[in-house]
Amino acid sequence: MDESVGSILKSINSPADLRQLPTEQLTALCDELRQFIIDEVSSNPGHLGASLGVVELTVALHYVYNTPYDQLIWDVGHQAYGHKILTGRRDQFHTNRKYEGISGFPKPSESEYDAFGVGHASTSISAALGMALATSIKKEDDRKVVAVIGDGSMTGGMAFEGLNNAASSNSDVLIILNDNNMAIDPNVGGVSNYLLNISKSKPYNKLKNEVWEALGKLNGFGPKARRLVQKTEGALKSYLLKESNLFESLGIRYFGPIDGHDVEYLSKVLRDLRNIKGPKLLHIITKKGKGFKVAELNQTVYHAPGKFDKNTGEIIGCECDLNKPPKFQNVFGNTIVELAEQNPKIVGVTPAMPTGSSLNIMMEKMPDRAFDVGIAEPHAVTFSAGMAIQGLVPYCNIYSTFMQRAYDQIIHDVAIQKLNVIFCLDRGGLVGADGATHHGVFDLAYMRNIPNMIVSAPMDEIELRNLMFTAQQDNMGPFSIRYPRGCGCKVEWRQPFEQIPIGKGRQISEGKDLAILTIGTTGIHATRAVKSLANKEITAAHYDMRFVKPLDEELLHEIFQKFDRVITVEDGVIQGGFGSAVLEFMATHGCKSKLVRLGVPDRFIEHGTPEELQRDCGFDQKGIYQAALEILQG
Ligand SMILES: Cc1ncc(C[n+]2csc(CCOP(=O)(O)OP(=O)(O)O)c2C)c(N)n1
Ligand SMILES: CC(=O)[C@@H](O)[C@H](O)COP(=O)(O)O
Ligand SMILES: [Mg+2]
């Protein structure tokens, strides 16, 4: 542990230690915790801004609530670094997101303080409600459940499903809305504007504190006084807010907004709220990146800045080197603009990932044709379907893992109607440090079994551009193009577009001993493995199949007539994926060759670098080489 760790923080090995502190020391602890997070994340990349924004909230929650008996659920969980550091993981925090280190998100298997596994947004209210009702069924006296959800995550439909149910329950769940007016990019939509209105509403805020103080004192009296408090409060809020409070109207008691960086006041309010019955929401106002100037000034970049100078904040190692292959996302972002300039029917859609997907390039150049719909993947798909049925050509860009949330919409709203929606699944495959909740390893399997769906994966940046170009044709129906996080291999990627024949693969290299069939960027590993095999006088034919659906059956017939040993490779689950599709082909056509399928095995893959994880799964260059040697011996 870095010797520069503050003396108070050094004394805290669990929240029980924290709860021994006098209230006057809480601010100093927050300063030490904030500096520790900055120091650690500066050299071990992770999510910075969100964690800095909830330092005071984290300290206050563990100070007031009897954790781990009382349970905290952190929505998304990218803001939980302070939580992890205060709950006994300070000395392991340098392993955060590293191979076999602690996870970057709360994980029950990692700590009893991590009450619920998270990573995808908008789940915390539903989980907290379930847990709160379970405690009352189990008659666990005085056990409290708290959900912390950001304003961005509150734009997710699932959050409203949870609110709706919580409002009609008599559970004591506390929902803390951490409002910093940011998602990764600035937050969008009516919810965001509504929250801004509350936090800026002068009349409401002017009177609120005094009235609350007065009414709060009544709270200590019997149920009649409590009802009076609730009625008066609700009426006051509705009148002063000139519109009914969204949460109060649902039946959830609303408190706030209050300053989310005043740790002593927060602790007082949390202590008051802890004993108020029924579902309630505390609205706090925070700043993403709080306490680190550069992070406050550029909140999107410092959401996850990579390595940076802990003193100046300067980011270390700019990736925009023109002599290096580009990020796939930037190939997408630039290519959709090129295509949209030629085809006025093209529009772009992202659920709250403009920067992560690079759709922000189109949003800047064509603001009326590119849409950030908030953290709302199901809506993003059906919104795209609505535009497609009117004759537009939407490129709906959703990370593979987040697309899982919209599976029914893909089937029900797009595929059945055979609409021209082009699904650009970024982060396809093992993503690395974000781990099991974020690996995009299921999309080849989950897209392949949908009728009318074309399922493709480019081997490199040029192929990505050509698939995007090909997909826009009229009457194409739903088209899925998946590509990985990070960079490809082609520095010279801006080539003229070429139409790709649907369902056609291509031969990359000749060979006679065995055939290696790849999909997507595993083709790059195979190319290198073929070269290593050649050093052993083994010649492997390599085919880039390009499409999982429709499969290139003509090419497969040729391959299975020519080779009695075949390997398939995919950066995705083996069960139901590309290799399974080839196996089905073999069964249907009575192919007798020996087939080995390389890919992600039937278990969740933890965090690490993509290289470490691909190695563990056995489909990196070495894994392919090894499998080839083994299949030839068999
Ligand atoms: C379903 C889903 N979609 C997208 C994301 C990517 N994502 C991670 S954090 C984030 C923004 C969250 O905003 P907010 O809840 O306000 O938290 P803040 O970062 O502001 O603290 C997004 C979009 C995700 N984790 N889950
Ligand atoms: C926490 C979260 O879900 C996002 O911040 C995600 O980690 C972004 O992933 P990329 O870094 O691949 O854009
Ligand atoms: Mg936010």
From TrEMBL:
Supply the CDD domains for this chain. Answer: TPP_DXS (cd02007), TPP_PYR_DXS_TK_like (cd07033)
SMART domains, per the entry: Transket_pyr
Q: Which keywords label this protein?
A: Isoprene biosynthesis, Magnesium, Metal-binding, Thiamine biosynthesis, Thiamine pyrophosphate, Transferase
Q: Which residues form the Transketolase-like pyrimidine-binding domain?
A: 326-491
Q: Which PROSITE patterns match?
A: TRANSKETOLASE_2
Pathway in which the depicted protein is active: Metabolic intermediate biosynthesis; 1-deoxy-D-xylulose 5-phosphate biosynthesis; 1-deoxy-D-xylulose 5-phosphate from D-glyceraldehyde 3-phosphate and pyruvate: step 1/1
Q: Name one GO cellular component term.
A: cytosol
Q: Which Pfam families match?
A: DXP_synthase_N, Transket_pyr, Transketolase_C
Amino-acid positions noted as binding thiamine diphosphate in the UniProt annotation, renumbered to this chain: 78, 119-121, 152-153, 180, 292, 377
UniProt EC number: 2.2.1.7
Tell me what reaction this enzyme catalyses.
D-glyceraldehyde 3-phosphate + pyruvate + H(+) = 1-deoxy-D-xylulose 5-phosphate + CO2
Q: Which residues bind Mg(2+)?
A: 151, 180
Q: Looking at its record, which EC class is this enzyme?
A: transferase
What GO terms describe the biological role, i.e. biological process, of this protein? Answer: isopentenyl diphosphate biosynthetic process, methylerythritol 4-phosphate pathway; terpenoid biosynthetic process; thiamine biosynthetic process
Q: Name one GO molecular function term.
A: 1-deoxy-D-xylulose-5-phosphate synthase activity
Member of which family? Belongs to the transketolase family. DXPS subfamily.
Q: How does it assemble?
A: Homodimer.
According to its UniProt entry, what is the function of this protein?
Catalyzes the acyloin condensation reaction between C atoms 2 and 3 of pyruvate and glyceraldehyde 3-phosphate to yield 1-deoxy-D-xylulose-5-phosphate (DXP).
Q: What is this protein called?
A: 1-deoxy-D-xylulose-5-phosphate synthase
Where does this protein come from, organism-wise?
A: Sunxiuqinia elliptica
In the UniProt record, the gene name given for this protein reads dxs
